[in-house]
């Protein structure tokens, strides 16, 4: 056979053995010569048993043909020619027994991967578990450990081989971005807690070609080998270490968020943001010139939109509703007294500034409000319903002007709050009365929600709702004994009580309000009837107020519609009884300048001005067919007072008109007004409603008349 390439050149492989031409070659048979020449490795190689070569075909014994190689040798080259040779087998050859022996050769291992997994029942299981535990401890204490030193050593693995591969051209691009430390921290945590499935797959693939990568894992992974060479890796120790590190980081983050320093920093940061946002309105509240910077205003608006966008949308919607419902009425007698035309005078009005509200107070009705005696920026608001069917848990919140969007202190009560007041001698004490008749005292300096003192253990506690409570300073004696502050309450059980603050709260009765028989006119010819039996001998107390100069006397309003003048020295009978209302008296208050005058409001839709020396009403005010829930005198004028009914708030100025209020502002359709309070140092008014909002209004163009006279009201209404 000769092999030629595409160009026609002879590329036949040359034999490894060339005979010496001078050596005589013995003549052999046609088959043995080529076998000897080629070393019995040519294509004419036969089996070990002898085959007789014949020419011809024997049909009886059978015949077969095979190829034989005929060679002719030259000293320069060898020519090989294939020829068909017919061979016949004899009967003896067919009947002869041939023994064939099969033997197993030595096994050749192409890939050997020693197992790194041991059975838990083996003798080495304990030693392997101990090594894994030591490795986990080393990994945990590795950062910052002085005993840890990085060293290099040569292992039994073979030297690394350099391998080069041709790839596409690598294009380099410069890119930049701005990130914060928080972004870096989050990205680092994600990279550590990311599942390691991809890494496991790559380790399983590379393990088939090299054992060094498996040994490099330091027994962190376990692999199971089969006869076919397939392996499956599962990460155990590494995932446990990562989970433990992630858990420690979560605990560390929680510790930071709950730390006092972090909470204090957030507290001041929130105040700064609120002052930037409400700066124009706070300046108007304090009657400072309002300087508006467009850049600051837009930045502040953007901050609020980013932080509390939903709340702002709700606030704007409610404010729009209030502005649509707001109506201002001006008494024309003001213009006639000033001798000015309507075009020359600016009518008084109420300008809304903001509302104390948050998600916590939403849906809780405002029942009472009280200013701190030493901090004019601190307002206490009680949240609780007056109706028995609407009762739920109450709240007592302390709001500050520095943050109108969230209260400084929150005290959660088991029952609705009906009354509250700050102490004068101890300004940090806040007394709270509740619907179930209990009284609690809280310390506003403490962030704890628990009450400092509670009347739940008192045997003399009230059995009805505490409708009003007040801290009263009273002269103990005339010999220089000083003043003592007492906590006075009035309840629906008909008792006016004084609470003694010691190790626990206990009370004594100042007055038990007795019912008065109704006076019915006797018709001519009618026989005298027996007096009707009363279900209860005591009348429900609704409100009270102590005289501003002589705290030994006080007024008490009842559910019968009567107002009793009482003395702390006499608990058996009333000094005077004022009968003018046809319904429960909700509020009674002395005039701070004309101390002989007092106001009262009732469920009979009326407000009555009284003189303490006369049992006949001096003036009666009624502008709407609705319950008058609350009234209060202005702290700057003896002629101005505010009143709220369910539908609107009214400002009355008796120096202008005794028939109509000078300013009226209607409530939102979704809420009803419940309480009213004047600001102590500014011309502002606070109004609470059933939605849980305390709206702050600025009194515009309402000049307070002078109150320096001894009895300023006497010049208007005349002597009693």
Automatic annotation (TrEMBL):
Sequence segments annotated as region (Disordered): 1-28, 193-238
Keywords annotated in UniProt: Cell projection, Cilium, Cytoplasm, Cytoskeleton, Flagellum, Repeat, WD repeat
One Pfam assignment: WD40
One GO term (biological process): cilium movement
WD repeat residues: 578-620, 621-655
GO MF entries: dynein heavy chain binding; dynein light chain binding
Biased segments, Polar residues type: 203-212, 220-238
Main location (coarse class): cytoplasm
Name of the protein in question: Dynein axonemal intermediate chain 4
Organism: Psophia crepitans
Organism phylogeny: Eukaryota, Metazoa, Chordata, Craniata, Vertebrata
Gene: Wdr78
């Amino acid at each position: 056979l000769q092999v030629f390439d595409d160009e026609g050149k002879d590329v036949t492989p040359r034999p490894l053995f060339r005979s010496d031409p001078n050596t005589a070659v013995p003549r052999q048979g046609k088959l043995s010569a080529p076998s000897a020449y080629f070393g019995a490795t040519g294509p004419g190689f036969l089996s070990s048993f002898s085959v007789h070569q014949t020419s011809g075909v024997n049909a009886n014994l059978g015949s077969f043909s095979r190829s034989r190689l005929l060679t002719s040798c030259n000293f320069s080259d060898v020519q090989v020619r294939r020829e068909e040779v017919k061979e016949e087998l004899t009967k003896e050859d067919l009947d002869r027994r041939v023994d064939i022996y099969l033997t197993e050769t030595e096994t050749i291992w192409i890939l050997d991967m020693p197992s790194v997994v041991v059975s838990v029942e083996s003798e080495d299981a304990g030693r392997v578990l101990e090594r894994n535990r030591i490795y986990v401890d080393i990994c945990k204490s590795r950062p910052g450990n002085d005993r840890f030193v990085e060293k290099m050593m040569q292992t039994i693995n073979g030297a690394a081989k350099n391998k080069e591969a041709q790839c596409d051209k690598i294009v380099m691009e410069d890119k930049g971005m701005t990130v914060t430390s928080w972004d870096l921290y989050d990205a680092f945590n994600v990279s550590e807690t990311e599942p390691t499935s991809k890494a496991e797959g790559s380790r399983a693939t590379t393990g088939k070609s090299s054992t060094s990568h498996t040994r490099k894992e330091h027994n962190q992974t376990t692999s199971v080998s089969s006869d076919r060479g397939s392996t499956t890796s599962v990460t155990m120790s590494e995932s446990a270490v990562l989970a433990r590190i992630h858990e420690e980081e979560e605990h560390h983050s929680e510790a930071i968020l709950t730390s006092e320093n972090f909470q204090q920093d957030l507290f001041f940061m929130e105040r700064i943001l609120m002052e930037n946002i409400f700066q124009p309105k706070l300046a108007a509240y304090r009657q400072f010139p309002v300087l508006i910077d467009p850049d600051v205003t837009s930045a502040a608006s953007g901050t609020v939109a980013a932080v509390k966008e939903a709340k702002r949308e709700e606030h704007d919607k409610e404010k729009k509703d209030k502005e649509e419902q707001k109506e201002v009425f001006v008494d024309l007698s003001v213009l006639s007294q000033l001798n000015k035309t309507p075009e020359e005078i600016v009518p008084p009005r109420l300008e809304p500034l903001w509302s104390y509200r948050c998600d916590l107070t939403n849906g809780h009705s405002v029942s009472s409000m009280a200013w701190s005696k030493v901090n004019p920026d601190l307002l206490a608001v009680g949240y609780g319903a007056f109706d028995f069917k609407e009762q739920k848990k109450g709240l007592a919140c302390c709001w500050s002007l520095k943050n109108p969007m969230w209260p400084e202190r929150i005290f959660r009560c088991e029952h609705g709050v009906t009354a509250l007041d700050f102490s004068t001698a101890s300004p940090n004490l806040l007394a709270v009365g509740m619907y179930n008749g209990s009284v609690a005292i809280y310390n506003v300096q403490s962030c704890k929600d628990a009450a400092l003192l509670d009347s739940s253990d008192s045997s003399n506690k009230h059995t009805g709702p505490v409708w009003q409570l007040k801290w009263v300073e009273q002269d103990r004696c005339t010999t220089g004994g000083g003043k003592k502050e007492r906590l006075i309450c009035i309840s629906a059980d008909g008792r006016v009580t004084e609470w003694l603050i010691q190790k626990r709260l206990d009370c004594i009765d100042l007055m038990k309000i007795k019912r008065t028989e109704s006076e019915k006119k006797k018709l001519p010819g009618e026989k005298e009837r027996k007096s009707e039996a009363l279900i209860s001998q005591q009348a429900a107390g609704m409100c009270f107020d102590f005289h501003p100069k002589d705290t030994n006397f006080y007024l008490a309003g009842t559910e019968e519609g009567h107002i009793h003048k009482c003395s702390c020295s006499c608990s058996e009978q009333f000094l005077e009884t004022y009968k003018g209302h046809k319904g429960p008296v909700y509020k009674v208050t002395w005039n701070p300048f004309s101390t002989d005058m007092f106001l009262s409001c009732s469920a009979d839709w009326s407000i009555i001005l009284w003189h303490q020396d006369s049992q006949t009403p001096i003036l009666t005010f009624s502008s709407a067919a609705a319950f008058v829930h609350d009234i209060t005198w202005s702290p700057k004028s003896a002629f101005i007072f505010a009143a709220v009914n369910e539908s609107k708030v009214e400002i009355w100025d008796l120096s202008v008109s005794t028939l109509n209020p000078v300013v009226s502002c209607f409530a939102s359709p979704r809420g009803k007004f419940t309480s009213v309070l004047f600001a102590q140092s500014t011309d502002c008014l606070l109004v609470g409603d059933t939605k849980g909002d305390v709206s702050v209004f600025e009194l515009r163009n309402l000049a307070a008349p002078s109150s320096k006279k001894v009895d300023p009201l006497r010049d208007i209404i005349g002597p009693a």
